[in-house]
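Z., the sequence and structure:
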Amino acid sequence: MQFSPYLNFQGNCKEAFEFYAQVLGGEIIAMMSFAEAPPEADISPEARDQVMHAQLKVGEQIFMASDAPSSYKPAQGMHITIGVDTPEEAERIYKALSEGGEITMPMEETFWAQRFAVFTDRFGTPWMVNCDKPQQ
């Protein structure tokens, strides 16, 4: 069994996924626009260039997404958590993803982690970045 986040965007899915691929070292393995839908789908002209379906592979993980501007609602009650091995990697990812976003808890040391942060990026995606303390 595998769980994959499916994110919705307000019309900036392509921009968000290209940014995530760059920051997270991933590869966009699919990006289909609404213009590629069959003619009977009756896609509005303003939606034609928006993303109908995208897949981003990061390591063995797959993220999927699409634009859904007419039904978009900000994510609530969840975060995508990124677990990293070093404080430096935690800081790098936090700095890049949180820029222009809303920080709930800035990057800091906690009783369980060398580095931990909670924020929502500029695209509306809620994240947690965690670098555990070494096991003793």
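The first strand starts at residue 6 and ends at 9. Residues 80-132 form a domain with the 2,3-Dihydroxybiphenyl 1,2-Dioxygenase; domain 1 fold (CATH 3.10.180.10).

Let me know what you think.
H.
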